[in-house]
Amino acid sequence: MILLILLEGGFLKNNLIIAIDGPGASGKGTISKLVSKKLNMFHLNSGSIYRALALMVNQKGVEHNDFPAIISFAKSLSLKNLDSPELKRDDIAILASKISENPRVREALLDFQRSLGARPPFGKGIIIEGRDIGTVVFPNAQIKIFIDADIEIRADRRYKDLKKINDNIELEDVKNQLIERDNRDYNRTTSPLRPAENAHLLNTSKLDIEQCCSVVCGIIEEHSAKNNNKCYID
Ligand code: DC
Question: What torsion do the CA atoms of 75, 199, 139, 87 make, to the nearest 10 degrees?
């Protein structure tokens, strides 16, 4: 499918921000990556910011509750910290979920996310994915989407992904870790995972990646049309 979207004027002059939230392995990462490429937008996975912080904590041997140290690491993060292949590790995902419960840690990461949203390094705006993007980080994002999928489907996707880097992985363990992380992410007091009031809801359980991207592009096209921008999808 050739997708040609002419994004000009209107909301793009003010820097289009698309907020995509949802639980782990819901498909939001793959969808955000593909759609941002098609639309020439900068893609930021805010989960990788929390993972990069967790990796620093892990590598520097800092206690998980040494928040003054963790906050000073948070303030030193830059885009180059978000590239490490180690961010995929499942122990790092769990640690990221744990340290992200702390309100001061979340607060310390807000500026980094917001300054990238205000001035993306390239592209015509930003697609930023995470847990609290539409509710807390960018409550005024022009487009908000909440992506979810059934736990069995998510576990299977994450299992296949992790299997590529770790052969000793069990589906049941991956599923239990996702459930544990969901519980923490949905139930924490500060910035819990939930759809913003005005978010579009997308359940990807029965859709393939092409179909998911089509739905998301449709939402953007509709927004674009309402804002008098030209938007063509072939
Ligand atoms: O999206 P991910 O699986 O890479 O995220 C890892 C953890 O980081 C997730 O379990 C919770 C935390 N996180 C968060 O609290 N807020 C975000 N906006 C993104 C991630």
Answer: 0
Q: Domains in the chain, ordered, with CATH?
A: 22-39+132-216 (3.40.50.300), 42-123 (no CATH)
Does ligand 1 lie within 6 Å of residue 204's CB atom? no
Q: Is the CB of 131 under 6 A from ligand 1?
A: yes
Task: Determine the distance separating the centroid of ligand 1 and the alpha carbon of 158, expressed in angstroms.
Answer: 14
Question: What whole-number distance in Å separates Cα of residue 107 and Cα of residue 81?
Answer: 19
Is the beta carbon of 27 within 6 A of some atom in ligand 1?
no
From 46, 101, 105, mutation site for ligand 1 pocket: most ligand atoms within 8 A of C-beta: 46
Q: What is the pTM of this model?
A: 0.90
Summarised one tens digit per residue, pLDDT across range 30-57 is 999 999 999 999 999 999 999 999 999 9
